Amino acid sequence: MHDDLLLLDSIRLNFSQASLHLMNISIGFIMFGVALGIKWENFKSIFLNPRTAIIGLSSQFLALPAVTFIAVWLLGSFITPSVAFGMLLVASCPGGNISNFISSVARANVALSVSLTAIGTVLAVIFTPLNFAFWGGLYSTTSPLLRPIHIDPFEMFQTVTILLGLPVAAGIIFSQKLPKITRVIQKPIEKLSILVFAAFVFLAFRNNYEYFIRYINWILIIVLIHNALALSTGYLFAGAFGLNRSDRRTISIETGIQNSGLGLVLLFNPKIFPPELNMGGMAFIAAWWGIWHILSGLSLATLWSFRRSEQKVTG
Asked: What is the pLDDT averaged over residues 166-176?
């Protein structure tokens, strides 16, 4: 396993400059679509019920990166540094844009899901570069076989601000200033953004189909384990604080559904990850996560939909 993944690390994925620009535009469009559904009431609900929201955000931005770090440390002899960094990068990203839909299928607390997605997307501008710089730096210094890498958190902050901050701000302002138009275009844009994301991931695999087929067995296993850890972390973390089943489901989904597309865009920014780092494994982890978390999330949500989830208020 390790030897196969070591070969994957040295692979430079085939992406033209036009493809990279398309990925950047795709992420911006997706986040604009997400922001159209964000209302100021979502942020207000955070202040009215701060305990549940803080637990959810802590699971996303504190517990998941920490659990991921422990996982890559325990798997150290089986995986390569590139794969480990890919797992840490995915764990540092905010929740994915389909978590609200999956929460509705799971009969979870959709209002909480929307609020967590809204505030989590905003906080990601700070926490994504901060988490990756911290946990990635810690991993590089604790691995005896790995030379330390130096990721510029400010450069990542700038990129995340452009990819997340600006489209989200534009979407929120648009929905507030033009509510009638927003009501008309919101649903079509949500559906279109999912298609855009699917095309985005398809593009990543199409240009690198040969490598994908050769190494998918190991990548699939690693992402399956990591995603299961993420979903379990959210559920158990929320349960440790005594939240009801509906809220536990929501926080599990918010923690297990990650915006791995953002991770891919960051990965292909040469100012953040210079090409000489040979991070082929990172790209395949992030790209396959973008497919797998939809399958696992919907499967888990369907299973949960057959079980009642008590809805009681938690402070």
From this structure: 85
